[in-house]
Amino acid sequence: QAVWAGWGHASEKPALPNTLAMSDPPIQFIGPAGPPMYALGDKIGSTIIAQNAGVPCIAWNGSDVVAEYDRVTGTLPEEAFQKACVTSAIEASQAAASVGFPIMIKASEGGGGKGIRMVSNEEDVQNAYRQVCGEVPGSPIFIMKLSTNSRHLEVQLLADEYGNAIALNGRDCSVQRRHQKIIEEGPPVAARPEVWKKMEEAAVSLAKAVGYTNAGTVEYLYSEEEEKFYFLELNPRLQVEHPVTEMITRVNLPAAQLQVAMGIPLYHIPEIRELYGKNRFEASADIASGGSSIDFANTERVPAYGHCIAVRITAENAEAGFKPTSGGIQELNFRSTPNVWGYFSMDSSGSIHEFADSQFGHLFASGPNREQARRNMVLALKELSIRGDISTTVDYISKLIELDDFVENDIDTGWLDSIIKDGSLSMAPSSNTVKRGSGVMNSHTVAVIGATVVAFNQFTGHEKRFLELLERGQLPPLNLLKMVRDVELILDGIKYKLVCTRSGSSEFQIAVLGESSKFVTTTVRVLSDGGYLINIGGKSQVAYQTSHSDAASGMKLSIGGKTISFSPDYDPSSLRTDVAGKLVKKLVPNGALVKKGGAYAEIEVMKMFMPLKVEEAGVITWANNEGAALAAGDLLATLELENPENVSTTDIFEGDLNVEGWGSLEE
Fold first, then answer.
1. Which of 317, 349, 358, 561 is most buried, most CB within 10 Å of its CB?
2. Rounded mean pLDDT, 364-378
3. Which residues pair with 498 in a beta bridge?
4. In sequence order, what are the residues at sequence separation of 6 or more whose Cβ sits closer than 8 angstroms to the Cβ of residue 627?
5. Packing angle between helix 15-22 and helix 34-41, nearest 10 degrees?
6. CB–CB of 193/179 below 8 Å?
7. What is the mean pLDDT of the chain?
8. What angle (nearest 5°) sits at the alpha carbon of residue 76, between those of residues 75 and 78?
């Protein structure tokens, strides 16, 4: 009997292998034993072990800690461990000053972007420390120097119970936002082969030093300029991006884990033998004489089989700094090809709820070289269709991997965050982004499609409400049957004030407010998959409403495979959240003056603490309390603007719409 925990939370909890070992009869855990998992799964403990094993480590608050690891109990001396922990906000300030800015404040038990903050000045240390403590309650905290302009490179390890440990190449995970991986690829090409070999050797030495068994990953920060690497952490489990390694080595990692757990030496695993240039199957005579063993330290691996690029698909709004979103998914269309495969997961209702991790899919593209793998991924992302209440990163990453920096592999761990901060990768739709047949659909046509969808939903919704009230014996208000409604939409910074007149059960006349003599006639039919077949001037287009408009975010449509985002009205005096979560902390008191761009609150979204910032300066008045559960669009506070005259407003569209069929009855 055995338990395989994959790469979820249970896979790195020492209590699981320890409990299984004590059962009667014992149950085999497919992974490392409890003691080394405990020692190496803890970021503080693993860094102490690494630096005492001679692995290069970046400056941190425990750089002077000397300790010997006990392989039997899997522990370090408690005194040494506590010396490396930061236990208060005041200690955090002192440690930060000693290490030197910029720094990273990290929870030892954190991971996946949780329990980590970058701090560049002394004023923000104590608040960041409290945020880290809140994201991973009870976890020890430590502080390390931030290595700027560095790569995140990692070595895939596999070790057996007989003291054999090998490196199965590695991965480059430098494309990150909020210190969480978003793109992984392998093999790493940023480090020269001789430097990469040293990184692999250091990782193998660390695994042997603690008697590690099964699969694991050693993560490094690598400075291309200095050609130096620094230990970051060791993950005592299989990682979610492990298929990258499988594609470039042709080693089935879960299968190898199982064979190691069965007590099979590495040199008897067929795929490992092939990786080291040996026959897949061994002759009986060689096994009996011991001639089938492999001296891994002095035997070269076969070269990597091409290149692989992986992209994480997350329920996040890339236009709002990758804020997590939640909601239902109505359609997900993806087909694997010989060069690209992937998987997706969500709950039984087809939803991504606000308490889940934001990642719900992963794509892997391979090719004979990095450029071909990249092109295969671009094609896969363009063909991937996800429709629902959530926002996804698909369109954003599709554009991201076509940027020159990514094509030329000129990236580091701060690359994506700098793009997000600068807003240099715009996702706003424009007149040249939506194609229809062989032509291009301009923004006026997109606005008319949006108005048709809004008007149709309003008219049919009110009509249904009218009939429901009649069935209950109630007298419905006549305004539910109004045949004329105003619709306002903001697209590309232009506000379209339109008048929609219902001229048939599914027919509408769309005019510009104040110019009713000219209009365009549209018809709409609801499709079986929830889409809208809209005819404008004799030409049809299918649109899907992927997000409804609310006070915090505008409506989103999918037209021709492109996501169109209509903006909400810009009102900096109403401070709202555009995601569901919880108000964790008010950062300023009631009546305080908040500077432009200043943080006023912290909310917890999908297990992460995120700051909310004001867009204009003003005096705050709170409308919600700490601990309150928040829905998207909820009002947290109002702001009495310091300079309301400086608030920019959208331009109002005037004139004729450039759409097919536009004109008057006389025309």
1. 358
2. 97
3. 487, 512
4. 582, 583, 584
5. 170
6. no
7. 88
8. 110
Question: What CA–CA distance (Å, rounded) separates 4 from 22?
Answer: 17
CB 275 within 8 A of CB 228: no
The pLDDT of residue 157: 97
Extract the tokens encoding 401.
């991997």
Cross-strand pairs, 171: 154
Neighbours of 131 (CB within 10 A): 21
Comparing C-alpha atoms, which of 362, 117, 325, 150 is closest to residue 239? 362
Report d(CA 324, CA 597) in Å as an integer: 21
Residue 174 and residue 185: Cα distance in Å, rounded? Answer: 9
Task: Kindly give, in sequence order, each residue whose CB lies less than 8 Å from that of residue 327, ignoring residues fewer than 6 positions away.
Answer: 315, 351, 352, 388, 389, 390
Backbone angles phi, psi at 442, to 5 degrees: -85, 175
The residue with tokens 């793109």 is 183
- In angstroms, what is the C-alpha Rg of the chain? 29
Which residue is associated with the tokens 């000045």? 121
Q: Cis omega (within 30 of 0) on the bond before 102?
A: yes
pLDDT value at residue 205: 92
What is the reported pTM? 0.78
Beta bridge partners of 564: 557
Q: Is the pLDDT of residue 400 over 80?
A: yes
In sequence order, what DSSP letters do the residues of 292-328 get, joined into one string? T---GGGSPPPPP-SEEEEEEEESEEGGGTSEE--EE
Gap between the Cα atoms of 21 and 74, Å rounded: 15
Written as one string, the DSSP assignment of 569-623 is P--TTEEE-SS-EEEEEESS-TT-EE-TT-EEEEEEETTEEEEEE-SS-EEEEE-
Residue 25: CA count within 13 A, CB half-sphere? 3
Q: Are strands 28-29 and 2-3 parallel, antiparallel or unpaired?
A: parallel
Give the model confidence (pLDDT) of 548-574 as tens digits: 766 556 788 888 767 788 888 778 888
Roughly what angle, to the nearest 10 degrees, separates helices 89-99 and 125-135?
120
* Rounded Cα gap, residues 116 and 108, in angstroms: 9
Q: Which of 318, 305, 280 is nearest to 400 (CA)?
A: 318
Q: Are 95 and 144 in contact (CB under 8 A)?
A: no
Distance CA 99, CA 81 (A): 18
Closest alpha carbon to 144 in 63, 249, 54, 247? 63
Residue 626 is given by DSSP the state T
Q: What is the DSSP letter of 126?
A: H
8 Å CB contact between 172 and 184 = yes
> DSSP secondary structure string, 463-505?
HHHHHHHHHTT----GGGG-SEEEEEEEETTEEEEEEEEEEET
> Which burial class, exposed, middle or buried, applies to 94 when counting CB atoms under 10 A from its CB (0-12, 13-18, 19+)?
middle
Closest CA to 236 of 78, 28, 42: 42
Determine the longest span between alpha carbons in the chain, in angstroms. Answer: 99
Q: How far apart are CA 664 and CA 43, in angstroms?
A: 71
In whole angstroms, what is the distance from residue 230 CA to residue 59 CA?
A: 9
Catalytic positions: 237
Q: Which residues of 626-664 are buried (b: 16+ CB within 10 A; e: fewer)?
A: eeeebebbbebbbbebeeeeeeeebeebeeebebebbee
Work out the angle at residue 418's Cα, subtended by the Cα atoms of residues 353 and 100, and round it to the nearest 5 degrees.
Answer: 100
Separation between Cα atoms, residue 414 and residue 422, nearest integer Å: 12
- Pure H helices in 100-238: 125-135, 193-209
How many C-beta atoms surround the C-beta of residue 167 within 10 A? 21
Inform me whether the pLDDT recorded for 431 exceeds 50: no
Q: Helices then strands (H, E): number in the chain?
A: 16, 37
